[in-house]
Design a protein that fits this description.
By secondary structure, this protein is an alpha+beta fold. It is built from 4 helices and 3 strands, in the order βββαααα. A 3-stranded antiparallel beta sheet has the order 1-2-3. Strand 2 and strand 3 form a beta hairpin. The radius of gyration is 21 Å and the shape is elongated.
């Protein structure tokens, strides 16, 4: 195994004990970005620690893959079929990227949810029908008053 000299660099692991300012304070490895982040200790106090979370590059590649699924082009499929097609992949991402700092993956999950909502709106033109379909899967409808 050899080190790639272009990619190799020394990174300063900034946290509450080490507060200096340096050029490199983060790095990406295996889909995670390691950088200083806020954390809560067991007493409820916040502090800065050097923690991993899903990287922007990984978020971008997940969004790109979801766009490639093209669920909006499958009007013949039911919500149950769509869930069966994509659930394993999404569950794998959730299992891998939520070990550390799980709130960083929420925007990716919102994106996937938005794609599904867009597909539902195109498939079921009548909102009442769409609400009935969602309720079968345990989702609660939010009605405007």
């Amino acid at each position: 195994m050899e080190l790639n000299l272009e990619k190799t660099r020394i990174v300063y692991c900034e946290d509450d004990d080490r507060r200096g300012s340096h050029e490199n304070t983060s790095f990406d490895f295996l889909g995670y970005t390691f950088r200083p982040r806020h954390a809560k200790n067991r007493y409820g106090k916040f502090f800065t620690n050097f923690l991993p979370a899903i990287s922007e590059k990984a978020k971008k590649s997940i969004r790109k893959e979801v766009r490639g699924w093209k669920p909006q082009l499958r009007p013949d499929k039911d919500l149950y079929d769509i869930a069966n097609m994509f659930n394993r992949k999404i569950q794998g991402w959730i299992n891998y990227y939520t070990h550390f700092y799980k709130s960083e993956i929420y925007d990716v999950l919102r994106y996937i949810n938005g794609c599904l909502v867009k597909w539902m709106r195109r498939k079921y033109k009548k909102p009442a029908l769409m609400v009935c379909r969602w309720q079968r899967f345990g989702y609660r409808a939010r009605c405007r008053t």
